[in-house]
Amino acid sequence: MKITGTWYVKAMVVDKNLPKEKRPRNVSPMRVTVLDGGDLEAMFTFMKGDQCQEKRTVIHQTEEPGKYSAYGGKKLVYILELPVKDHHIFYCEGQLRGKPIRMGKLVGRNPDMNLEALEAFKKFTQRKGLPLEDIFMPVQTESCVPDSD
């Protein structure tokens, strides 16, 4: 499974513990690189007010293929390959202010929506017990460039 490179977020689902106003409406492409030892770093940018912010997260390999941990084990990240070419699901389980939170992202190598991949994402969402009506399609944006102070 080749996971490095640029990924476009096509659809997302978040459980009820993340209020709607906290859900991202716009997303930039996510860039995944392999670090020494096989861990991964995921990086994306976003606008906070009029400031470009960069978010980097290192996810550590576990014994289980496709399963990673982040933030000192507080968050688990699963990367699932879909039968649809160049599409994966990034699925996270963790805690937010003491409450369990789950989030899934359908990602692909290009920004165009693939209906077959979306259908697979909907089935995954149902298997995880997340409501289909909570699936949303964030607007694709270009990566911004953070100020280097």
Q: How would you describe this structure to a colleague?
A:
It contains one helix and eleven strands. The chain has about 150 residues and is mostly beta strands. Strands 1-3-4-5-6-7-8-9 form an eight-stranded antiparallel beta barrel. It is globular, with a radius of gyration of 15 Å. It starts with a strand and ends in a 9-residue tail after the last strand. The mean pLDDT is about 90.
Task: Indicate the topology.
Layout (H helix, E strand, L loop, with lengths): L4 E10 L11 E2 L2 E5 L5 E9 L2 E11 L5 E4 L4 E7 L5 E10 L2 E10 L6 H13 L7 E2 L2 E2 L9
Parallel strand pairs: 2-11
Antiparallel strand pairs: 1-3, 1-9, 1-10, 3-4, 4-5, 5-6, 6-7, 7-8, 8-9
Task: Briefly summarize what is shown.
The protein is mainly beta. 9% of the residues lie in helices and 48% in strands.
Q: Which labels suit this protein?
A:
149 residues; 1 helix; 11 strands
| E-strand count | 11
| Gyration radius over CA | 15 Å
User: Main sheet?
Assistant: 8 strands, antiparallel, barrel
- Poorly predicted regions are none
Helix count, DSSP H or I runs of 4 or more residues: 1
Global outline: globular
Strand order of the largest sheet: 1-3-4-5-6-7-8-9
Write the H/E string, N to C. Answer: EEEEEEEEEHEE
Level of helix content?
under 10%
What's the mean pLDDT score? 89
Strand content: over 45%
Spatial gap, N to C terminus: 37 Å
Supply the helix-strand structural class. mainly beta
